[in-house]
């Protein structure tokens, strides 16, 4: 068991180091973005939502086709991949890179690797469910897709995408400031109260 844990930890450290090397040119930008999404300043959430709203309003106003939107998105990614590693050290100053920043960059890369592992793990568990319990797999997948299709039919696709993107961008800050844990504990207490009341009624 201990050997397995050590092997997993070594693989995690190796994957984290590889990701750090791949994202080294983006280090300053990633740290700046991390400060924004974790709300290190009080006005960061408002700025985040304002910029997100502006981008989606621009998309709504221009109303590009799927092919045009996809082409523009890929083009922006290519430009960013070329320009950011070149311009970031000049804008942020690579000589100001501190031990604390390096540690935070290491933590971000580690969290990204862990998130990737979780997604792969969920996908493998879904595959295992398909093999072991095909009826449950079929029922759960079909019902989930039907629910998503119904939501997509009721809500405008661009507005739904805006809500999802906004939630994902606000999620790190909500988690950092304990908002999620606060409301999760409140929901847990209410559920426990309802269960206790149900037990009393049954008695």
Can you characterise this structure?
The protein is mainly alpha-helical and 203 residues long. Helices cover 88% and strands 0% of the residues. The chain has helices spanning 2-22, 27-37, 44-62, 66-93, 99-132, 134-154, 157-176, 179-202. The longest helix has 34 residues, at 99-132. The chain is globular and about 70 Å long. The model has no long low-confidence stretch (mean pLDDT 85).
List the keywords.
mainly alpha, globular, 0% strand, 203 residues
* Succession of helices and strands: HHHHHHHH
Compute the number of helices: 8
Largest sheet: none
Structural class per helix/strand content? Answer: mainly alpha
The residue ranges in which pLDDT falls below 50 over 5 or more consecutive positions are none
Globally, the shape reads globular
% residues in beta strands: under 5%
Radius of gyration: 22 Å
Averaging pLDDT over every residue, what do you get?
85
Distance between the termini: 45 Å
- Quaternary structure type: single chain
How much helix is in the residues? over 70%
* Number of E-state strands: 0
Entry summary:
The chain is mainly α. The chain contains eight helices and no strands.
SSE layout and pairing:
Blueprint (H helix, E strand, L loop, with lengths): L1 H21 L4 H11 L6 H19 L3 H28 L5 H34 L1 H21 L2 H20 L2 H24 L1
């Amino acid at each position: 068991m201990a050997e397995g844990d050590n092997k997993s930890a070594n693989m995690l450290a190796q994957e984290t180091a590889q990701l750090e090397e791949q994202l080294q040119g983006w280090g300053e930008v990633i740290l700046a973005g991390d400060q924004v999404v974790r709300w290190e300043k009080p006005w960061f959430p408002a700025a985040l939502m304002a910029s997100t709203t502006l981008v989606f309003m621009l998309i709504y106003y221009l109303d590009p086709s799927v092919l045009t939107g996809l082409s523009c998105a890929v083009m922006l990614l290519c430009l960013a991949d070329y320009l950011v590693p070149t311009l970031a050290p000049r804008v942020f100053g690579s000589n100001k890179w501190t031990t604390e920043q390096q540690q935070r960059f290491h933590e971000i890369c580690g969290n990204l690797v862990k998130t990737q592992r979780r997604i792969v793990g969920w996908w493998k568990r879904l595959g295992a469910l398909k093999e072991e319990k095909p009826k449950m797999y079929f029922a759960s997948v079909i019902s989930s897709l039907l629910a998503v299709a119904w939501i997509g039919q009721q809500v405008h696709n661009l507005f739904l995408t805006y809500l999802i993107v906004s939630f994902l961008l606000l999620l790190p800050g909500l988690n950092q400031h304990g908002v999620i844990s606060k409301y999760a504990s409140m929901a847990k207490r209410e559920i426990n109260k309802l269960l206790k009341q149900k037990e009393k009624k049954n008695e």
